[in-house]
Amino acid sequence: MNVDRRTFVKGMALAGGGALGIMLSPTPWYLIRDLAFWTQNWPWVPAPAPGEPSFEKSICRICDGGCGINVRKVDMRLVRIDGDKEHPVNQGSICPMGAAALQMLYGPSRTKVPLRRVGPRENPEWRPITWAEAIREVALKVRQLRAAGRPHELACITNSAHSTVNQFFERFLHAVGSRNFMQMNSALEAHSTVLALMQGVDEGIAYDIENARYLLSFGCNLLEGWGACGRMYHAHANRSAHEGGNSLEIVQIEPNLSVTASKASRWIPIKPGTDAALALSIAHVLISDGLYDKTFVERHTFGFEDWKDSDGKRRRGFKSEVLGRYSPRSVELITQVPANVIEEVAHEFAANQPALALGGRCDGSLFAGIYELMAIHSLNALAGNLSRPGGIFLQCDVPLKSLSPVKMDEQAEQGFAIPRSDGAGSKEHPLARHLPHNLDAGKVGVLLIHEVNPSYALPNRKVARAIFEDIPYIVSFSSFIDESSMQADLILPISTPLERWDDHTGAPGIPYPIYGLSHPLVNPLYESRNAGDVLIEIARELGGTIAESFPWNNTVEALRERAAGLYESGTGVIHTAEFSATYMSQTATPTEVKSFPTFSDFWNALVKNCCWSDPQCTTDQLEQTLKTPGKKFEFFSQRLQKTFGYSNDLECMPHYHEPPPNPQGFDLLIMPENLITMADNGLGTPPLLIKQLSNDVLSENDLFVQVNPITAMYQGLKDGESVILESPAGKVRVRIHTFAGVREGVVLIPLGFGHTAYDRFLRNKGVNALEIFDAKMDTVSGLAVWWAVPGKIYKV
Amino acid sequence: MKMRDISESQRQFALLGGIFAAALVVSLIMGWILFPSLAYARKAQPINYNPPLHVEQIGITCDTCHFFYEDGSWAGIPTLETCVDCHSDIIGASPEEEKFVNEYVKKNREVKWALYVKQPECVSFSHSSHVRMAKIACETCHGPQGHSDPKDYLANRITNYSYVVYDPRVPLNAFTIIRDKGETVWGTMRMDECTACHRSRGTSTACFICHK
Amino acid sequence: MKTESGDQRIARYGMTIDVDKCTGCGTCAVVCHMENNVPFTVDESDKSRNMAWMRIYKVDNGLDYPHVRVVYFPRPCMQCDHHTPCVSVCPASATNYDGLTGIVDQINTRCIGCRYCMAACPYMVRCFNWWDPVWPKDMEKHLNPDVAPRMRGVVEKCTFCSHRYLKAKDKAHNEGRDYLREDEYVPACVEACPVGAMRFGDLNNPEHAVAQLIQSPRAFRLLENLHTEPKVYYLSSYEWVRKLADNFA
């Protein structure tokens, strides 16, 4: 079209008029306003809904520490976890794992519905089934075992918590007719063996850290997950006297610079595995300089001085032994700790009473042998620190009402007479209670796995593999799709601790009784159920005496029944808190149990506040802590002699024995490293914790092991290089990171990596360090010993 | 010739002026009436809640259902739980009431109310500061909502936000929609309105005071 | 804001972190990221791309075994008081310094994603959303409604949990108060620190613990030579730690 001048001018008039008219109208301005609003909305970015704010208490069950938590809720969503300032264990401090627990609750690796495996274990496919089908299936398998006269082939591996649900599992096994109830070993389990041998008691060990002035820690990672993590953090927060607490010195004896070592008042580097020699050398100085508690040793110990046995034969005592063999000068050669340092530490230990000597590396579970822990514990006895403030106590029983006795029919009685398949309590391992790492998989027909991940976390890898290769039928009661569930035959989705009724007795290392009760803060997600409720239903399906052994309708009924014992005891307190719905303020007063008019008042207060404790009730009398036949602390353990029939006196006393030489070609020592950010017990690690890992721990999917720069130089390796780390048990591919805090000749490998299950945020990152640790069994306790393994490292 | 020229050019100018004026009038009509009318879609609320009935006849006040939580945060639109306090059973004979009780209360379903006033996700508005501290009445921002009965929810087609006419005497048309806010129309506040008020009262205008 | 006695006073909120106490456990960072809806990805080891408002740096004294020692520096936004570098370069007024509280905020929807502030910040506290944040389906449930999740293409950083300041004010207003008590406004990290290494308060208020702590000879700040006057102070009794904080040029 030809546009002439006239047409153009007309067009301009039209446009001008139109434009002016539009500009004189509100439309353009409102359009701009609306577009501005539009730009502020991003519909694909989640907009968390506001709602009614509230706070509820609960108990953290990530580990056995039993820390109190305070959960912030928005309507029915849980959005934050904080430490409960009124809880006696942690007093407000929690670890990062506890703080991130909501990522586990809402995480993508939750088990959602019961799943039955189809296809082989190596390449499983999963078919969803209903709860009714699942319960019928488990009942059928148990019934088949009983019909075949093999009820003892039912076994269970569960977590190390002292909980009613675990009692349910034990009860179920007994009612069916099996002794094979196994708990994973708790971190301080070896210490119980030491107490049994030297003090003749069955209870767990407790440390009055709050009142101690000096901690002599033999490799305990006190600030990286030892004991109840929140409690240790709180103790660390109040370490210096000017913070209002008791001034507390921590002396860390450890080959490598751990977090605890770098925060300690003093770090004493030591040759790996020689802790027993050092402890006995400190004992040497205490004795030779007369710095020990003479009254206590004279009155309350056995085997200190030389003694005569019933045959009139002269036996060497602890004193002669220590004075003869462990002078600082000779021990300097063993431990590579200078003699003057040994003397200094011994003098400090004596001068800063009450002082505690703590053993057990990493979280407490790693040790070179029971004699090492005995050597360390004898320092506590020399200081006379038993049953007195700042000293060693026993874990106290919580006065819960015990559940009614199990009913067993004839078949159950027969099965129950057959000894355990893990050898605990047998002639070989008379002191052991649970040895899941020694399970004879060939003797198990049906295995129930409850909230543990033996496939990943069992230190003896051969047994871990055998369990999943040889046991015909495995049921996993799990909240998460972990490695063990992936190899099971049936996965039962269990509610996480924040969704269920549960309880927890006693916190590790706490000297007075504590009972934690948790209630559901949200309705169970998906189709998950309480493991206790599932067991009750399975028992009902089986009928007979098995059903009669479970007379409750659900777990809460049993919990309520047991809690009646607390009320009837009339002792202890509940910290009843009045919440104000703010972030910070929360006031609580200890309410005595006596002051609740009825049981249901008590129960309601317990449910709301989650914790009963009795700080007055400690084993503060020596007759409570010394229960050997002579009511004495035994430097020479008569029980050890009697049980094992040792002829060599040394084998009944704390001593140091040289480890066997490394196999040819393995000139390095591989040691595990406990990271506070990684769950190393087979539980998953939430994504926000993986975010915390520095990229010299994990880079993409490569795990780094740490070596001293000098070690790297000798091996011809550079920082960041890919290497093969090999031990007699196996080899893994990792990268190296050089760090001067690692001792020469040591390779530190972090635990908690190399998962093959869980979600994409955790899976396939690094390697599972356990694969190269060849766990041995301690001859005395039967517990797994894997504090180190000989190794070599070379380029890929 | 000259005259003719003049009249010719006058005619030309008149024509151009006519085109200009016509375009102006048409675009004014479009700008003032057509576009504003097109900019909003009328939508019905899921339940035709009747504020004057509650406020004037039953005599409850705003804060009966729109209350503060203990920590000073604002409950906002009441949830079913609040409604059920009175409406556990059908009260009166209104069909809307019957629908509410049968469809929502009995089935325990939350009503998905369309909000007349809402801010984008990046804004946090504290009712506590405005109502408790500055003592601003609800009506200042929300208008006489409790006394009006807006049958329709007007959703802006671009933003999906609403403006609503509260004064029932004013006919709902383009003119009322574009009328200055505060006279007959109330709705989602713009940032310039927020800051103007904050400035005039000498309150903080730090960004984080309103933006989250 | 007003103090208890009622006189108008300008607050300067600040933090002290005792690095001698800090064990580098990471609870502060976890809690910070929970509180502020900071997203995560499958590969978090790419520290140039991952999102973190609080990072913990492990630093050693450079000596050989056994003289080597380690400290951990938790690093939130330093909330610079003077010539705040990010504020002075932002072309979109997306980050601003508030004179009444001293808080340097970040308004996500206003950010145009030029990342000029990231280049300007000497402490590397800022991170850029290379992707839209994605949470696995049910994980959206633990998001905090007080903080808006960000979108791709914007920069974000620690805000001293300014939403908690507003929450504290809300509560105070609800109780008819116009002032805040010392413990009422505390960022999530400080509240959660399990070893009590972190303190928070008004540096202008001599009654607040932080105002006293920053007077101590143990107190120092990172890169003081730049004179950006950070309001995050570190405390240490060790000379080598204090020296680490600056190049002493």
UniProtKB/TrEMBL annotation, chain C:
The keyword rRNA-binding does not apply. PROSITE patterns: 4FE4S_FER_1 (PS00198), 4FE4S_FER_2 (PS51379). Residues 13-43, 100-133 form the 4Fe-4S ferredoxin-type domain. Keywords: 4Fe-4S, Iron, Iron-sulfur, Metal-binding. Pfam families: Fer4_11, Fer4_2. The keyword 4Fe-4S applies. It comes from the Bacteria. GO terms for molecular function: 4 iron, 4 sulfur cluster binding; metal ion binding. NCBIfam families: mnquin_red_QrcC. PANTHER family: PROTEIN NRFC (PTHR43177), PROTEIN NRFC HOMOLOG (PTHR43177:SF3). This is 4Fe-4S dicluster domain-containing protein. It comes from Candidatus Abyssobacteria bacterium SURF_17. The lineage of its organism: Bacteria, Pseudomonadati, Candidatus Hydrogenedentota, Candidatus Abyssobacteria.
